[in-house]
Specification:
With 416 residues, the chain is of the alpha+beta class. It has five domains: 9-44, no CATH class; 63-71 and 336-409, conserved putative lor/sdh protein from methanococcus maripaludis s2 fold (Beta Barrel), CATH 2.40.420.20; 74-80 and 258-335, Efflux pump adaptor protein, beta barrel domain (Elongation Factor Tu (Ef-tu), domain 3); 85-119 and 224-253, OB fold (Dihydrolipoamide Acetyltransferase, E2P), CATH 2.40.50; 121-222. Helix content is 28%, strand content 34%. The protein has three helices and 20 strands. It has helices at residues 9-24, 121-172, 175-222; strands at residues 60-65, 67-83, 86-89, 98-101, 108-109, 114-118, 224-226, 231-236, 252-256, 260-267, 279-283, 291-302, 308-315, 326-342, 346-349, 352-359, 362-374, 377-382, 389-391, 405-409. The strands form three sheets. A six-stranded antiparallel beta barrel has the order 2-10-13-12-11-14. A four-stranded antiparallel beta sheet has the order 3-9-8-5, with no helix packed on it. It starts with 8 loop residues before the first helix and ends in a 7-residue tail after the last strand. The relative contact order is 0.18.
Amino acid sequence: MRRVLAPSLGAVALVGGLAAAFAVAPCAPPFAALAGLGFGPAHCAGPRAAEAPRAIAAPTITVVAAVDRPFVDRLFVSGSLVAREEADVAAEIDGLTIVEIDAEEGDTVAAGQVLARLDRSQLDAQLAQNDAATARADAAIAQAKSAIEQAKAQVSWTESDYDRAAKLGPQVMPAATIEQRETALRTARAQLASAEDALAVAEADRKARDGERRELGVKLGETEVKAPVAGIVSRRTARLGAAVGGAGEPLFRIIEDGAIDLEAEAPEQALPRLAVGMTAEVKLPGVADPVAGTVRLIGAEVDKASRTGKARIALAPGAPAHVGAFAAAEIALARGRGVGVPASAVARDAGGARALVVRNGIVEQRAVTVGVAEGDAVEIAGGVSAGEMVVARAGAFLRPGDRVNAVPVASDGGSP
């Protein structure tokens, strides 16, 4: 039989009383003596007091001052580098071979400088023949002149002889003798005319020889291929030993004065804003610093397919440019001053452009009118005044009326 020790009635009554007392006043003084039973102050704590709400710190944001600064309205264009004027240099005489080349691609040449020489041996032989023919013509002229002098003397003598016979008449001198002397006079006069004709032929032959010599002189001069203009040799097709021909490819190509243009393509809507003389900065491939340029020519035609027009930008003399290379340029369309802020400070949506301005620690939203964009800065044509502090990066987490801790940073109206 299992035996269970039942608690005494007194113990049960004591525990019940204590429980009732603690329910009424768990930490009442009469029960302080029960601390030795394990009911210490930790067991007598009252209900926890309600915590007071903590203050939320204002968020820290970066602001920049809107500044008055210069702005340049720029147009970005690109295209290829071309020679402003290019001269083709070809040999003006056919059939001769090239025996010497005195210029290479990239060389700077002066007007009249010899670029190549052709074989002139054949022309030298012709020149020698002309010298001999000229000498013969000179001899013929001298001979004709001597014949003329003899003929003149014969004419003079026969005239005198005939005049004497004619004065004596047939009464003194036979008629046959008079006729003989008249015939002799006519013969002398014919010989004089023949000698004069011979002189004219000899002189004409001499002039022909002179003309041949001048022609040979021109051909000899053409054996030296010279630069018609000063500039830079952009291409050389001349080869030693090659025969030149009038219908062949030019032996050299020269960029006149070394002047190079950027032939850029501009949108058709930008063409009316372009004007000759506008300055530009041209970025050349492989060159760190931009090169100064000037708008020299504006095309009058727009391509129907690309809807772009041509604009020629003249590069500054001495620019490290190469014909055929790609390049880009920024054309300054207009210059002025305005209120500038970083581009990141302006937010755009369907309602337009807006910026957040901080005044006395409170955020204000402003509708702004955006003007010229230049680099990381934009011009605010309306809505923000110079000196006002704008949020550097307009974000959706800020609302008008928010209190913020604004931290200003230095800015020139561009990126902070």
